[in-house]
Design brief:
There is one protein chain. The chain has a single domain, classed as Vaccinia Virus protein VP39 (Rossmann fold, 3-Layer(aba) Sandwich), CATH 3.40.50.150. Helix 1 runs parallel beside helix 4. Helices cover 30% and strands 29% of the residues. The termini are far apart. The protein has a seven-stranded mixed sheet with strand order 3-2-1-4-5-9-8, sandwiched between helices. A two-stranded antiparallel sheet has the order 6-7.
């Protein structure tokens, strides 16, 4: 088991949603951006690093029918499946490190809130963008810690981004639709500043 996988399996085995900083009861920003693309409800959507995030619950409630959730932690996906119950059968669950991911289909919408900033080497970042370039047909929604955000998350170093650096990372195959920053209030009432960008394939 890789060091990264071991770390995240331990996190999801020992902590509940109210004990991790990234939990959102309703991921409204992500939902708003996904719906802004005005795609059909059978659009292929993948949530990168979805863990036991509530995004999949809300997408199912909105009528989306072709959802995949990827996470390095099998335990995280088990938690999400248990929460969804029978609805879990409507979702494709993928256990993989994102930089080792070999997609079997292309995606209309690639959503990632807070995975990309954990990639801190040029090799990791380049591999991520290559996978996205090859396997995203239409749109990306990306959320990372901003230059006003934390320097670490879950004990790990992260890479901060601003509008220019995030746009530059994807400029080879994607054009920016919009970027903005917003504060995320954690379950323990601390504030984390994120930057969100949406991109369209060119």
């Amino acid at each position: 088991m890789s060091e990264d996988k071991s770390h995240w399996e331990n996190v999801y085995s020992t902590k509940n949603p109210d004990q991790v900083s990234w939990t959102q009861k309703t991921p409204q920003t992500s939902l708003d951006l996904i719906q802004s693309f005005e795609l059909q409800k059978d659009a292929r959507i993948i949530d990168i690093g979805g863990g036991d995030s509530n995004l999949v619950d809300h997408l199912l409630d909105l009528g989306y029918t072709n959802i995949s959730v990827l996470d390095i932690s099998e335990k995280a996906l088990e938690k999400a499946k248990n929460r969804l119950g029978e609805k879990a059968d409507k979702v494709k669950w993928i256990v993989s490190d994102i930089i080792e991911f070999k997609p079997e289909e292309t995606y209309d919408i690639w959503h990632d809130r807070a995975v990309f900033h954990f990639l801190t080497t040029e090799k990791q970042i380049s591999r991520y963008t290559e996978i996205a370039e090859e396997n995203v047909a239409n749109f990306i929604v990306l959320g990372t810690f901003s230059t006003d955000g934390p320097l670490k998350c879950s004990g790990l170093e992260i890479k901060q981004y601003d509008e220019l650096s995030l746009t530059t990372a994807f400029e080879k195959s994607f054009k920016k639709i919009k970027c903005f920053t917003e504060d995320h209030i954690t379950p323990f009432d601390t504030v984390q500043n994120f930057i969100f960008c949406s991109f369209e394939k060119v």
